[in-house]
Amino acid sequence: MSNPQAGENPVLQRKSVPALVLGIETSCDETAAAVVRRKADGRGEILSNVVRSQIDDHALYGGVVPEIAARAHIAMLDGIVRLAMEEAGIGFADLDAVAATAGPGLIGGVIVGLMTAKAIALAADKPLIAVNHLEAHALTARLTDGVAFPYLMLLVSGGHTQFVLARGVGDYVRLGSTIDDALGEAFDKTAKLLGLPYPGGPAVEKAARSGDGKRFNLPRPLLNRPGLDMSFAGLKTAVRVAAERAAPVSDQDVADLCASFQEAAADVVASRAKRALEEFAQMFADVEPVLVIAGGVAANTRLRQGLDEAARATGARLVAPPIHLCTDNAAMIAWAGAERFVLGLIDPLSVSPRPRWPLDATAKPMLGEGRKGAKV
Amino acid sequence: MTLLALDTALSRCSAAVLRDDGSLVMLSEELGRGHAERLAGMVQEVMAQAGVAFSDLSRIAVTVGPGSFTGLRVALSVARGFAVVWPVELVGVTTLAAIAQGVREAGMDAGAQDRPLAVALPARGGEVYAQLFAAGGLPAGEPAAIAAETFAAALPADARLAGAGAEALAQFRPDLEIVDRAAAPDIAAVARLGLAAPSPETPPVPLYLKPPDAKPQTRFRIAYA
């Protein structure tokens, strides 16, 4: 044995190795496959990124219907994987690993993606990597902007609203979370109440543009409490009460309700972000504070404006990956797979799908935590 | 031809390798749950025991239902995933046809060639997944999710009953004999049906027989002026 020390430390041995990974994402209402390369220097390159949205399949129901989603995933996924491989211009033999979302998410869809990945890994004789969907969101900023650990992440989507401290691959601390509805869910429910189309986020934002955000005085729940937890269920109810008082509503009423709701939501998130960045600065005095945003609600312009202000007020850098990498996609799954692969973090073919899978195993469970999709 | 057969549509998790010469290696476990964890390892095991590699496979037969929606998607995802990597034919086999085939193969029914066989599996809401097979084994109707009473009433007087839903049919047709109560197909029957099937033109798709459980939203919406 020439160099026993190197043999004992596969992590250090492999970190400088490039990795080419196929990623699969099926945990909610996007069927997606992508090929991503992590270069030896740690930088990422997206070779292909195919996403097929199921929005039309669910629009009639005003939210994601799990069984409809699962049926669409199995009908589409193999073709989408073929397309991703073709667009990347590679064969299965070229891959270093196959990664798939194993949770959290809707179990029917997760099973389709994870089983497809297991089959490809087995048939192509490649390692399997079971990726936590939330970790993939958290690591996206390393793919797009090469952000170094530690950093703060705000994940804000239809299923999640949480502040996470990312200390390393597989090493996360949840600093705060919604205690009831996810913010995206509150947008969807507000849209539903006001007769706006699904998905609610873009519809509410559009209506809010011609609205007066100060007309309705809506609550900012938990704003004056310590900590980083948030609540949106009360805000949603307040919108409903205000709408009922104003009924029958005009288009201007609806625009004002949307604007007032969006103001309140953005205020809550921005004030929490500011506090999170202050806490970060205390924890890591020598590190430039970075706030990374992820999730579909990150597309909301008003929310971004609030986060921008919070970052500026605390001397932090706001990193917002392009919106198609903030919403659900498979490039982030492939990238998370690559980050795990170079650390030797691979999974057996017996790995379980995990509909609930918090990023921070030590954090106490919250209502709605680790659950995706509108609760229809 | 070397064929791999998979089934996770019901309570069993099964995999088998069948060769042209009729030699069969199979693994089948009564799981209830955990198919997603077990199936890939089971495929590795049967292929190793049979001494075949993926490059040797020319066809994969997989049960497409009726059965558990989530369960049938486990094996179907795996079959379709294999076919993305290797140029294999995919053949879908219904659980009802496989159970009917199993009954005939088992020889438990000496007169089966001459008499119709009704196969039924329990479905929710007082229904059964059911199909009638004619004497000789060919389908005499389409598979359906149907009230046990309705299906049973239409059965010919010389039919016999099979499958875990047979009891539900017999309640309404005490005159008919139950010859088998299989809750899941025999993987050997799935493999042999798959081997006998013609080359498919399109990949197999799930046979759900029931729509997703979802209603268009009718929730409260504010009144417009």
Automatic annotation (TrEMBL), chain A:
It comes from the Bacteria. One of its GO terms (cellular component) is cytoplasm. It catalyses: L-threonylcarbamoyladenylate + adenosine(37) in tRNA = N(6)-L-threonylcarbamoyladenosine(37) in tRNA + AMP + H(+). Its cofactor is Fe(2+). Residues 45-335 form the Gcp-like domain. Required for the formation of a threonylcarbamoyl group on adenosine at position 37 (t(6)A37) in tRNAs that read codons beginning with adenine. Is involved in the transfer of the threonylcarbamoyl moiety of threonylcarbamoyl-AMP (TC-AMP) to the N6 group of A37, together with TsaE and TsaB. TsaD likely plays a direct catalytic role in this reaction. Substrate binds at residues 155-159, 188, 201, 205, 300. This is tRNA N6-adenosine threonylcarbamoyltransferase. GO terms for molecular function: iron ion binding; tRNA N(6)-L-threonylcarbamoyladenine synthase activity. HAMAP family: TsaD. Keywords: Acyltransferase, Cytoplasm, Iron, Metal-binding, Transferase, tRNA processing. It comes from Breoghania corrubedonensis. One of its GO terms (biological process) is tRNA threonylcarbamoyladenosine modification. The keyword Ligase does not apply.
From TrEMBL, chain B:
It comes from the Bacteria. GO terms for cellular component: cytosol. GO terms for biological process: tRNA threonylcarbamoyladenosine modification. InterPro entries: ATPase_NBD, Gcp-like_dom, T6A_TsaB. Residues 30-135 form the Gcp-like domain. NCBIfam families: T6A_YeaZ. This is tRNA threonylcarbamoyladenosine biosynthesis protein TsaB.
